[in-house]
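Hey, can you fold this?
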Amino acid sequence: MSDDVIRAAGCVLWRHGAGLEIALVHRPRYDDWSHPKGKLKRGEDAAGCAVREVLEETGMVCVLGAPLPTVCYEVDGREKEVRYWGARAVSGVFVPNREVDELLWLSPGVARGRLTEARDRELVDALLGVLRVG
């Protein structure tokens, strides 16, 4: 891959609430529902970025689990590569911020329907496979 690739990382964040629940974030800038993710900072590894982005966007401290599929797509004429992990939320409180104005904890089926992008729906299925649910 070229140096022109936008590198990012994120998590399919989950917890046990009323059954398995998956966190989705709403980003007003794009008016979309997605999994928490963001760009790597200089010198940062993807796993560290994923944990940082979850904390920044959701207020949740998480424990990384199994890697999930890497997603590649184009943004403004550049390739973007997002590495994902399943991650269990262990503590924290969501406070709306400039990037994320809403956080929802949803059952996997409802989360699938709320996600804006099909590529994010596939990550829900990947997490369920890793957790051996559904």
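Oh, and this one too while you're at it.
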Amino acid sequence: MSAVAAPAAVMVPAPRLSADDGGAVDVLPGLYVPEARQWLSTTSGRVAPEGYSWMQAVHWVAGSGLYEPRRHRSHGPRSFGTTTVFIAQMLAELSPCRPGLAYLMRRTGLSERAVEYHLAMLREAGLLAYVVRGTRVRGEQAQASEFAWTIPTEFDVALGIRTAGDGTERRMTGMAEAGRVLMARLAKKASRRVRRPRSKPPSKSPSKSPSKAARGGADGASGTAVSGGSRCTPMGGGADGSSTAGATYSPPESKLASGASKSPTPKKSKAKAGRRTLNRVGRRYQLARELTEELDWLRGCSVPRIAWVARHIADAGWSTTDVHAWLAFRGEAARVRRASGLLATLLKDAEKILDTPEKRQLAREQWRAGQEAARRERIQQVRARHERFEGDWQPPTSRAVQQQVDAAFAAVREVASGRTRFDADPGQALPDLPDGVASLDEAEIAQARAEAAQRLALGDTDVIEDAVAAMGPELAEQLYGRTLLRRARQLAAGSRSTLMTFGCR
């Protein structure tokens, strides 16, 4: 039997009759939900109203021992332990409960396969049910699964909970007297935070093994507590409920609370644990971990490697904001081949240049100002795009009408800027040339061609394009000549290509 599942008999209330019970509570069978009933539409449990009530059911399953994973598979975790409860605690904070594997891997430090194992254990125990199952299609972004917090029927039977309603929408209306004490203790467990479990090496001292075995047999508990609270109760999170086993003994709560019973394990001060100061190596690793989480091009890098690269700035007291400000000053590469090497190059002599807190504060202020300016520019671009494409006016679909509209807008822009074609008066229409350019003298034609050639040298083809749209290709060719017209068409075609840039050498 696993360490957390040791007090299984204690978690099931004794079969006693109550005034509002119809009969005795039987010992529950093993807890297991097949894959076909792990959906919200097929589950037999009820949906938990909030994460707090759901965590009570999670702690009950962890301490009851009714669910044993190795009964149904030959691989994966051996028991419903602290890690599974820790993952369930993170799921209880999500609304809607739609966690991604990458999020759980980052929070727990586990591998993808381990996270999938623990999620499968929560579904098999009847604590989770699929609402929408995630998809993984090659070439597309993976979609995370959405779950519903469910409370198994065995939990209601064990605590004598009465419900009203049908299906998953059942709600709690009452409880038997035998389960009230156990529910109160489960509420205390659900209100405490479960810390991230850490693997501990096995003890090499042979003299400590008999004492641990004796304590495990006497208290009916394990060496790993389900809830990370105080150890004034027997190790294992407290033997909740009354035991039906004759050989199991638990001291009364009054003695445990007053400290009359001394635990052989020395207590740890919570104040010292919360105020632990990081040493120099710890600060390096802390900065490296924050950088790998905040910088996209450092994702997936080895934290020890980044800690060694950033050791100088970490020893100088730099924060992640200081690193952001320095990288904005130095500049970042668009394509990164070796992230740790690039970081080492960018951070070279950074602690010597920004060697005082005042300099780092000035760099942070400049970086924040640049971020604010970029944010405002993005807002203006989005606003302009929305005003352009989401306004009441819709552009015409006909190509001929579009050319006329473009010509009208071009004429309005020229009048507004004080420039008119062929030196016409502002507000006058374009001259009508029914006989081609015969009505213009050579000086006007030469002036128009010189102006068009000067604008083409700057990459501006609006003059010739407007002439083609207004007069037609034949008259525009007679006015500007075939060479300028062909050059304008080449520049217009090149402006739509990403391989050509105007205005730069």
